Amino acid sequence: MKTRITELFGIQHPIIQGGMHFVGLAEMAAAVSNAGGLGIITGLTQPTPEALAKEIAKCNKMTDKPFGVNLTFLPGFANPPYPEYIKAIIDGGVRIVETAGRSPEAYMPAMKEAGIKVIHKCTSVRHSLKAERIGCDAVSVDGFECGGHPGEDDIPNMILLPRAAEELKIPFVASGGMGTASQLVAALALGADGINMGTRFIATKEAPVHENVKKALIAASELDTRLIMRPLRNTERVLTNPAVEKIVEIEREKGASLGIEDIRELVGGVYPRVMQEGDMDAGAWSCGMVAGLIHDVPTCKELIDRMMSEAETIIRKRLEGLLAA
Ligand SMILES: Cc1cc2nc3c(=O)[nH]c(=O)nc-3n(C[C@H](O)[C@H](O)[C@H](O)COP(=O)(O)O)c2cc1C
């Protein structure tokens, strides 16, 4: 399948693996890229730019296909040395960056000068248009269904994607809730040039996370995610567990007066404990509603091949078959 996204990134299939904290390591990115998609290393999971340089070098040894690095621009209070992370990306020979969080505007000149293609992930049409204006090559449009931070507008992809198609000139991929061939075909029908998946890629053989995480995704239904931190305007979709239910309760009690200190121990430092140690109740961790559609743990290649071949069948048989001769 050839789309503006496969052309832009030089990949075989229009499927991207979004940056994921403590999941997007070299093993994950290389497995997706080797399967013909676009794998992405999560920059800030590496504690320093030097550590990121090592992770990129490791990935370069594991694949000769293109892969990218995610740079998440965090809200005000945390300020990692972004210029040094960008230098590690450029020096490592990576030419694709997925940005997310705040606008990447300040860093665009440095990235463009190095020939980097930038795909900005955002949750609204207005932020997508801003990304287009500042020179991003593509956007990843993240609907309300998504695992992680869906923003504050709560627009699901059935509306957000065709709205993006109405307004954008640059290519975009559908992100949030994606996990099956029928959704890929639907996203293409709605105007996207491919899809971005997060949660679905965690339940793959190569995902470098504890088996408990993969089991939890298979056990979960579409009803098992919760939205937290809305009063802080930093809404996050997470898989429910006793710690998350506690957060929801605290948020209900505190209402608009909620501060980050009220829930800090339930949201801070959780990722290594969940992803590496398999302590599923350690706190809140991002997970999308697509958990309800995850029923197995294939390799990345099995997953992508299956999706592409089923997509072809849906297009050729089901959709074409609906048209009167
Ligand atoms: C466990 C987990 C961690 C994530 N960490 C990040 C991150 O550090 N930076 C980022 O830009 N997006 C992050 N995301 C969001 C994904 O890149 C992607 O946009 C999202 O998962 C898409 O929705 P889906 O999970 O429904 O596929 C994370 C998602 C998950 C599930």
From TrEMBL:
Gene3D superfamilies: Aldolase class I. Keywords: Dioxygenase, Flavoprotein, FMN, Oxidoreductase. GO terms for molecular function: dioxygenase activity; nitronate monooxygenase activity. The keyword Oxidoreductase applies. InterPro entries: Aldolase_TIM, NMO. PANTHER family: 2-NITROPROPANE DIOXYGENASE, 2-NITROPROPANE DIOXYGENASE-LIKE PROTEIN. This is 2-nitropropane dioxygenase NPD. It comes from Parvibaculum lavamentivorans (strain DS-1 / DSM 13023 / NCIMB 13966). The lineage of its organism: Bacteria, Pseudomonadati, Pseudomonadota, Alphaproteobacteria, Hyphomicrobiales.
